[in-house]
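Example 4.3 (complexes with small molecules)
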Amino acid sequence: MKKLTRRDFSKISAMGIATFGAQVEETTGASLNKATLTSIVSRPVNLPVAKGHRVVVVGGGWSGLTIAKYLKIYGPELDVVLVERNSMFVSHPISGLWLAGLVNLDAITFSYLDAAVNNNYLYLQATLIDLDRTSRTIFTDQGRLNYDDLILAPGIDYDYSSLGVEDQAQEQLLKTSFPAGFISASEHISIKRKVENFKGGIFALNAPAGIYRCSASPYERACLIASVFKRKKIKGKVVLVDPREQPAVSAEGFLSAFEELYGDIVEYMSSSVISGVNPESRSLSTDFDEIIFDDAAIYPRIRGAYLLEQLGLADPNSAQMEAAIDPFTYNAVGDANLYITGDCRPMPFSKSGNTARTEGKYLAKLVAARAQGKETSWKSPQTICYSMVNTQPNQAIMVDGKYQFNRASNQWEHFDNYALNKRNESMASKTFDWFEENLQDMFY
Ligand SMILES: Cc1cc2nc3c(=O)[nH]c(=O)nc-3n(C[C@H](O)[C@H](O)[C@H](O)COP(=O)(O)OP(=O)(O)OC[C@H]3O[C@@H](n4cnc5c(N)ncnc54)[C@H](O)[C@@H]3O)c2cc1C
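Answer. The structure with flavin-adenine dinucleotide bound is encoded below.
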């Protein structure tokens, strides 16, 4: 492993320091000078010295947690560090069921300490700020850390300009007053409070254009919020705006649930592109309509985490600013020791937890094999998505599928697809089993 010399501190980019400075100012109100900021990020982090080949995984979501665990399974000799900015994990999958009161917050909240202790790796609560690929060093708000291999799994960010919102004050108001609920736990908590306090009128939701996080979830969320209104006899309507002609996934199952279970509660507006949202007047416009809402969770188009762009690792030709990587090895272009994966991947796979975990297991196997001087063959990720569409009684639908690359057309294709659109109680109980199995595996 290369040692960082004094001169290498100059490799911390001005952009990295500026971003860190802005974060410090936002959280503490203090404005620190460049020399102070540089000294914070360039001191060594408080971790034991690496015992062998060190693999650093940044991002403790469904992807990073799986990779950290499986690196130790496929390469017990590896020294693995998981770097995550949050102090605890709140799951996105099943958060909709919590929204509808089917599970407690406890059921979706987990400790990074447990994950690290039970799976024999180190956890560092820190935010990645910058990267020097020559000396193989990451710079975080807790200091610097050397790696032999680095895996980035930082997830996604929102692109509010996709909703016609360019003004920063409007964007901030929209983000905080009508959060999308697809990135942070605070967003989920705000949406739950909104649903619990809703007195009646229109609750607006939307599915964004492009490939967005969890194709089924805007439709599942519409069903779950409608089920709360139905149970509490609230005179409310869930208006779901979608640019597509029909739901992006499980169309038959969702459309029949809308019609048969929530005929007077869910209004599904297909082929409707949002051209503007005004959080002050609580209105959103499409090409044909203006919808005045009483409350909402507005979901902008998503993009790969800004971090990648800041580090020069995003593909500028990708429509959603996703990572510039080899799609089979996940190597950042031209870098044998840097891998990027999870929802920020550019391949058109479903941006879902099951996909991120199966992909993560393959990548952990590949990185461990390479550290042992071997290779391993590519394996398709698997997308499995259960959607709870009814809560009286609990009934779910599901899809399952894999991917293959067609070299003749130069396109990714689905294969081994299976869908169950007829909602039933057995699928509902499998939804809980699927979640339990995955979370047990990541944390215990
Ligand atoms: C409401 C909802 C319901 C869903 N339902 C399902 C479902 O039923 N089934 C399913 O399979 N999928 C579902 N998903 C999708 C699933 O949650 C995502 O696909 C999955 O979380 C992607 O994993 P990831 O690790 O790539 O990203 P994330 O889970 O977002 O993890 C990224 C991590 O990186 C960390 N990070 C980012 N930047 C930094 C930095 N600079 N320094 C340190 N850490 C950083 C973040 O804090 C975060 O913990 C759902 C998503 C939502 C929002």
